[in-house]
Amino acid sequence: MIRVRALRRGLALCGGLALCSPARPATAEPRAFRVAGEMPLPEWVQSAEVTRADEPIYQGPSGAEPRRGAAARGARLPVFGSKRGPGCRTRFLLVGALAWLCQDGVELSPAAPDTESDGVLPQSRDGLPYRYHFVGPDGSFGYRAVQTAEDGVPDAQLLKGFGVAVIRVEKNPEGTPFGLTTEDLWVPMRDLSPVAPIAFHGRELAGSLSVAWVTSQTAYAAPAPGKPQNPKLKLSRFQTLDVLEQRELGGHRWFRYADDAWLSDRDARAPTRAELPSGLRPGERWLDVDIASQVLTAYVGDRPVFATLVSTGRGNDGSTLATPRGIHRLWVKLRGSNMDNLDDESAAENYAIQSVPWVMYFERGYGLHGTFWHRAFGNKHSHGCVNLTPLDAERLFGWTSPKLPPGWSAALPTSYEPGTLVRVR
To answer: Could you tell me if residue 252 is inside a domain?
Structure first.
């Protein structure tokens, strides 16, 4: 289990181990997008540009309504109407279905709203929304202004191994490159080591589970189950195999991927068929996390559509470092979330990582998210979360519900869009 520091305004209760409770079910059906407001909007208004980080979005025009999510600073959201309501000095703006935002935190704009292709996060081909770096062995410092960086007292200290998410790089007046992080701090690039993206991703399925992945560094195929390995048939780690046949022998699964070429589950991982969980609607999307095989499979009803390797919690069942088994539902999705254990005085070593991407919480502080700081996929390794490669996390983030509209940094479920079911077994 990790400590979460995210959405300082939008989900202020998410700090620490006592995370936000799931959103209360909405009691009303989705409102019409066009509403009569007490203060009609000017004709030129096309969008509301968010001026504060993680601006709260509510299910109704009141600060006492259940949270619906949060908007990212700089995002331009569509505006469909307005109403006065408690908890907002000006008025609430309707920015989507069951989505109201206080005008105090935005500027009305004639510009068109954001679309999925021009959202506030940069596009990438590796699943990483920012360029991530690790702080070097001597640590580093952060500064609020690049023009005066290193001229005076630093604004923050960054310890060795901390992960930072860099938005852009600029030079100070002396010509030294500094990176602006998602925490609005300028850090000297000389103190940072870039993260090397991992190219691995899962397999799209058409109803069949005939796939496996090599997880051993030194894997050699055998001509038959239980026979000596053939040194000429070496496989690469994370290599994808089309499984033609499976057999059980001596408590191990064996996978045939070619003529006279078999690999056991000592060196490979493969999905296993999961029964439909209770409480599932007909044709509903859901996720199955198999701790034994370290494989996640996405289903539509009883049809598997995607599978990939994961890393679940390394602790024993029931411990804080174990992924909680059972049937859950996503209770919040965040495009990025800071994670650390800085308040854990018993920790052997502290860690802090900015803007961990594609976070989907299903049980308190346990969730699925993108991971770039290790490559142990197919093996238990995490502090309790379900670790995915960034490409797989981004893929599942867009596939699960609740959906995040363009410009939103977080979304909570509603009565008409519940969180995707996640079963951990």
So the answer is: yes
